[in-house]
Specification:
heterodimer, A: 66 residues, mainly alpha, 3 helices, 0% strand, elongated, B: 436 residues
Chain lengths: 66, 436
């Protein structure tokens, strides 16, 4: 997509408007729907839960060291 | 500066330009992050560290809202956030992580002393390297030579930090050792994991100026909550601020300067990834040592052994930084980055043209260039800049300059070095990316 060769890029760009079947988010024209999609995407993103868990560990640790 | 994706994709020379820019930003970040600590040295030990921490964050908050307003206008911030609204939450979370980590460092220093605590939380670079490899496919596809350059460089910088810390401080801890070690390790985990949201934002293409705007929200709210809770409520906290009003300017100024370092750090993270950016910016300890030795006359009258440790540690840190700087991402590694970005675009349904263009430091076609918007400030921008200036002036009017030995020649030399890095960095970022 970003830094690949031209050929790969052209294939990639033919996928516009970029809604893959594997996408966890559905298109919704309304702003509320878009916000909900965003929230669902965040909650289903494992990468979100890692720093979130780290944050919880930090809060617990803070209570311990005080 | 609108370019078509097809033009950017094959542009290897642009990738190399961005690499060089990112490396330079990493070094500039180290210089400014160290310089930001200098004003806090003017604060006496009798002031609560929570007050100092709060004022630094307040300075950072004011700076982060006024600098974007000055550079590209809040309109661009709003427009950028609309493209990737999910990153607002990520930005706030990164700010919370920083605030918790920073508070843990205060307790770590209290319990085990700076000499032990600092190297422990400085291991955040190793945590960051790990997250970069595991979550964002950094160093995937890179040759063994490059992997060794980056990971080895990070380890060498960490060892250098151990030497310098052991030599530069000898304060004995008076608290609970286990509690102090846990606090320092916790801080390391917070500061290392804070880069997950950073990298998340930048492989998606968000402008660092936008990200930092939301970062400060999480930061100021968490720090205010912590300071209020630890100092016994809003009343006692306000009373403490009032008592210390004569020194509030110094940590505020430190926070303001710290943002410039952090901005450079964010641009470095964007263009070279967290596995390279964090170790590079962690060389701030080296610059901090120069401030301590030459400006504040610290480390005088010590044994030759200690000086040897300082020199050895400094050389190790410099060698580690050079190793990382020379291990730029190869074309294969860029493809791995691309896959990580692809995942973000799919999951969050982001326009590919936005991701492609912004990741390469260009404007998406739908968005106006900061160059074109430069000079077009809204009323809100002017209001933010005016309020920031008023806060600066008000705190400056109350300040008292402490009586302490400062070498002004060295102060001027290091300040000049910082300003040169700032001007060179700003010009390079402006010319290459338009601050994207």
């Amino acid at each position: 997509m970003v830094y690949s060769s031209r050929g790969a890029a052209e294939v990639y760009y033919r996928k516009e408007p970029f809604l893959h079947s594997s996408s966890l988010v559905s298109m919704n024209p309304s702003q509320t729907g878009h916000s909900r999609s965003c929230l669902i995407a965040i909650l289903t993103d494992i990468q979100f839960w890692i720093p979130f868990a780290v944050l919880l560990v930090g809060i617990v640790l803070l209570k311990f060291v005080v | 500066m609108s370019i078509t994706p097809a033009e950017t994709l094959t542009d290897r020379s642009r990738q190399q330009t961005l690499q060089r820019l990112g490396i330079f930003c990493g070094f500039a970040a180290a210089l400014w992050l160290a310089g930001a600590e200098a004003p806090t040295k003017l604060v006496t030990v009798s002031v609560s560290p929570l007050v100092i921490s709060f004022m630094m964050v307040f300075g950072a908050f004011v700076s982060r809202w006024s600098l974007p307003a000055l550079l590209s206008g809040t309109r661009d911030t709003v427009s950028d956030a609309r493209h990737v609204p999910h990153l607002i939450l990520w930005g706030v979370m990164a700010g919370c992580l920083w605030a918790i980590g920073n508070t843990l460092t205060i307790f770590a220093v209290r319990d085990i002393g700076l000499s032990l605590a600092f190297p422990l939380w400085n291991a955040n670079s190793l945590v960051g390297v790990l997250w970069g490899i595991l979550l964002f496919k950094e160093l995937h596809g890179a040759s063994w030579f490059r992997k060794l350059g980056v990971i080895g460089g990070a380890v060498v910088i960490f060892i250098g930090a151990l030497f310098i810390s052991a030599a530069s401080t000898s304060q004995a801890g008076h608290g609970n050792a286990l509690r102090g070690v846990l606090a320092a390790c916790g801080a390391s985990l917070m500061f290392g994991s804070m880069y997950i949201p950073y990298r998340k934002a930048y492989i998606t293409g968000m402008n660092p100026l936008t990200f930092l705007t939301f970062f400060t929200l999480g930061e100021i709210v968490t720090v205010t909550f912590i300071a209020t809770a630890f100092l016994g409520g809003v009343g006692p906290f306000a009373h403490q601020l009032s008592l210390d009003r004569h020194i509030l300017f110094w940590p505020f100024l430190g926070g303001f300067m710290w943002v410039i370092g952090d901005l450079f750090q964010n641009y470095a993270t964007k263009y070279v990834g967290i596995s390279r950016a964090i170790p590079l910016s962690n060389t701030n300890q080296l610059w901090g040592l120069l401030w301590a030795v030459f400006v504040f006359s610290e480390l005088r009258g010590l044994t030759g052994n200690i000086y040897l440790q300082v020199v050895g540690g400094s050389l190790l840190m410099a060698a580690g930084a050079v190793s990382i700087a020379c291990s730029s991402a190869s074309a294969k590694e860029y493809v791995s980055w691309q896959e990580a970005a692809q995942r973000e675009a799919r999951l969050y349904n982001i326009s590919p043209s936005y991701v492609v263009a912004r990741m390469q430091g260009c404007d998406s076609e739908a968005q106006s260039s900061p160059r074109s918007s430069f000079g077009r400030r809204s009323g809100i921008d002017l209001l933010i800049i005016t309020v920031a200036t008023c806060i600066f002036v008000a705190l400056g009017a109350m300040v008292r300059i402490p009586v302490m030995e400062i070498h002004f020649v060295w102060l001027a030399v290091l300040t000049l070095a910082m300003l040169l890095a700032l001007v060179a960095g700003a010009i390079a970022l402006w010319r290459v990316t338009g601050f994207n």
